Amino acid sequence: MAAPKKGRRPTGAQGRPGRALAMILIAMVALTAGMFISGQTTPRLGIDLAGGTSITLKAKSEPGKPNAINETNMNTAVGIIERRVNGLGVSEAEVQTQGTDHIIVNIPKGTNEKQARDQVGTTAQLYFRPVIAVAGGEPVAPEGAPSPTPSAGASGAPKAGDGKNPSPTPSSSATSQGRALSEALKAPGTPTPSATPSSGASKKADDPKATATPGATPAPTPPAADAGAADLQAKFAALDCTKEDQRATAGKGAKPEEPTVACGKNSQGAWNKWLLGPVAVEGKDVKEAKGVIDPQRGMWIVTMQFNDKGADAFAKVTGELAAKQSPQNQFAIVLDGQVVSDPYVSSALTGGSAEISGGFTQQSAQDLGNMLSYGALPLSFSEDSVTSVTAALGGEQLRAGLIAGAIGLALVVIYLLVYYRGLSFIAIVSLLVSAILTYTIMALLGKGIGFALNLPAVCGAIVAIGITADSFIVYFERIRDEIREGRTLRPAVERAWPRARRTILVSDFVSFLAAAVLFVVTVGKVQGFAFTLGLTTLLDVVVVFLFTKPIMTLLARTKFFSSGHPWSGLDPKRLGAKPPLRSSRRTVSAPVEAKEA
Predict the structure, then answer these.
(1) Where are the beta strands (DSSP E) in 393-469?
(2) Measured in whole angstroms, how far is the alpha carbon of residue 515 from the centre of its chain?
(3) Could you report the per-residue pLDDT of 112-146, keeping only the tens digit for each?
(4) What is the pLDDT averaged over residues 159-187?
(5) 226 has pLDDT over 70
(6) What is the DSSP string of 131-199?
(7) Stated pTM of the model
(8) In angstroms, rounded to a whole number, what is the distance separating the alpha carbons of residues 186 and 324?
(9) CA distance 536 to 405
């Protein structure tokens, strides 16, 4: 008789059930501890079960875009807002249009209302503009100058907006500022050249990087450019960024190819104002953005990765700004009309990436990265109203759903007790383990990704009871088949597992595939059903492999089950088992002596 191959476990080997049980016990303890540590000890409920907040947004017309409010732009805005507030599609936020110019956003209870309002109301229009001048937030009018100019600093000096130096103080000379602004008006769409003092001879007038010698006469500019520069300088001088109404209208209606003014805070919390050149890079050229913590500085920042077009434009503008003096070696990162950062440039940045810093918290950095990744809204919106909404279904409907689940679970338990008797204990404990895992994971997902449990999701969890019970039944029936063939319990448990395992995996794969397709092709509440169904299907595989099979192996060693007790559910007589399989020797007949002829 050939011996089994070395290294290969023969059929009927019992493995190490204790190791598998220890793994699932550790997982349950870790998930439960994580649930209590996070402070989210119950799953978040959807708006249909717990109510929430309803935000009404009204689309605003913008100068130069009379037909911007249309069905296409409104639907695009709905999609972007839904991705912002709904994340992976399981937070149960509802976003829909109402009429031709309104969007209704319903957010479940438990969501940070301020954060949600910031997410849905922010256009997230991002621009990178070269800095012409920067000053304190209050209006100033120095004698003999139409507008203030920040005192020039060294090329490597700390930037004005990062809190490393105080708010800039105005200077009495505005010659270089005015010349830079005039050049920006003459050549829209390109970074503004600097006009800094130089001890050498001046370069040709058509050289975009020309510098001015002290006392030299600046190149003449067209009257329209001079008038535009004077108007913008006067607007910059009069701008009071400490007043909310002026901050809201600063630079309103400015086109990307035009210079503009803007307000923003430095890291010290003081308001500054900026005079900015035309847009050099647009936010739509940002391919990916996310909030991360800088390990060297210990502060939260937003990192951005540009597409090919944005990377080329960013390398070009930073290369041009690096040759200038402060503040014209800085570029402002302008989000929805406000400057969020104004880093200086010492060399061309050619890596296709950038970062935004400026006193972010973890939440604000991640929110900004989220908005930039999903893109800017095609329209500007104003907040019409914010109201609290009551649960659409209420506690009574939730109780009805839970009662339905309890009835279904009770029927499954009764069936198991009547038909499988002692084996029903294994099934019930396995269902309990599955319930603990499902509950703790749902609670943690509510904190982690904003998962909210709505009524369809509850239905998905109820359906999962049947899927999990079906896996137990498949295994139990395979064991019974082996006993009917005349095998004792311990080898029957191990020989039945490979066939049962294959059937369980195929069945769960089909269920998970259906849930995945449903999650991808649907929206809204149906995604909650699909997500819960997929999650519980995966947990069914975990429970059967790491708990049901190992516990069955251990119980097969007990006298109650191994002896085939009538209440064990494995009584050979009740199952109609054949006589035990025994190895028997083939009887060899003695040779018959030939008779003599």
Answers:
(1) 452-453
(2) 21
(3) 656 666 667 666 677 889 998 888 867 755 444 33
(4) 44
(5) no
(6) EEEEEESS----TT-SS-EEPPB-TTSPPGGGTSSPPP-EES--HHHHHHHHHHHHSTTSPPPP--B-S
(7) 0.56
(8) 19
(9) 15
